[in-house]
Amino acid sequence: MIAPRMVNPPKRITKASGMYSTHVHLARTSSGVRLPKRALPNDVLGLAVRFEEGVDLELMIKQQSLYLDVNYDDRQIPMTMPTDFIYGKHPVLEFLAHSPKRAEKLYLRQGMPAQVFQEARKICESHSVPIQFVPEPKLTSVAGRKANHQGFVLKIATVPYLSLEEGLALVAQTQQTSHGEQATGDAKPTPYPAILVLEEIEDPHNLGAMIRTATAVGVSAIIVSSSRQAPLSGAVMKASAGTLGMVPIIRVDEFSDALESLKDRGFHLTGLAMKGSHRLWDLELNEGPMAFVIGNEGAGLRKKTAEQCDFLVHIPMDARVESLNASVSASVICYEWSRQSRLATTSD
Asked: Do 171 and 42 belong to one domain?
């Protein structure tokens, strides 16, 4: 974690290219780093700040309280997670227009005329951002009694999502460059990439644990669905032990289409299932690009998803234990892939 330094006192804020920039005086509190309200006008949505050591910060407003994420050494390192929401029609539309990849879900007031949210719906549909219509009390409970939310509340992610095309292009690029770079830690470059595919993981602690494991073993990307999926919240960041954002997160609207796209790109789809026909230990996981599909904590893989998988595997265990937690199962298969892949690299 970066310890913020005192920087120049607030100056007059100027607007350039849709962003506000200034030098500000930041103070660390028990809940994180906070910017004084007087540092910028109440209607500002985002603020670009530069520390003396060159750390770029992005701050968001909720009820005139500003909180920040940090971009340091090309990684997102959130320093505080007090809020995950933006409200009000204009602020929400501005955020969707400039940062749609960080939009988690848009909540709209039930009964709102379609023409009022037409622009927001268009942006959401083009970036796979789910929309949910909720009663007025739900919006008020999120935004606060005194907030004029105008029927618009946007839940934002702590790190941006990638589209499937962007994510897979990044995976290919990373795989090409990783073999020419010196490995860090105990890990050596694997001959083929692996992607962790999560179908409707609803528990943020499970999601965070899976992200932590994926980062530890060198998984190239994580795919999540846009529906019935735990958001990338502060709880996920905490459970991931700060690793959220180190592995690209790909969000897809049509899960089955994403699986077919992976197949078209040469990935072998391997689903975890209690009654899988293959034992995990018997499967060769280092003979090509792999995609490990993990189902919902309670329901497991959907029938259609299971049918799309090339292999369904189970983890052998003592008869006294019926199943493992979803995040534990994901850890087992990820580490088995890592073990086999690096053994193959060593033998070569």
From this structure: no
Range of the domain at 127: 84-156
Do residues 169 and 306 share a domain? yes
**Model pTM above 0.70:** no
List the one residue out of 291, 286, 297 whose CA is nearest residue 328: 297
Q: Is 31 exposed, middle or buried (0-12, 13-18, 19+ CB in 10 A)?
A: exposed
CB 287 within 8 A of CB 266: no
- If asked whether residues 58 and 94 sit together in one domain, one would say no
Each residue's pLDDT, cut to its tens digit, for the chain (348 residues) gives 333 333 333 333 333 323 333 333 344 333 344 444 444 333 333 333 333 333 333 343 333 333 333 332 323 323 333 347 888 888 889 889 888 888 889 999 999 999 999 999 999 998 889 999 999 988 888 777 777 889 999 988 878 889 999 999 999 888 777 655 554 555 556 779 999 999 999 999 999 999 999 999 999 999 999 888 898 877 888 888 888 888 999 999 889 999 999 999 999 999 999 888 899 998 888 889 999 999 999 889 999 999 999 999 999 998 898 888 999 999 999 999 999 987 766 555
**171 and 300 within one domain:** yes
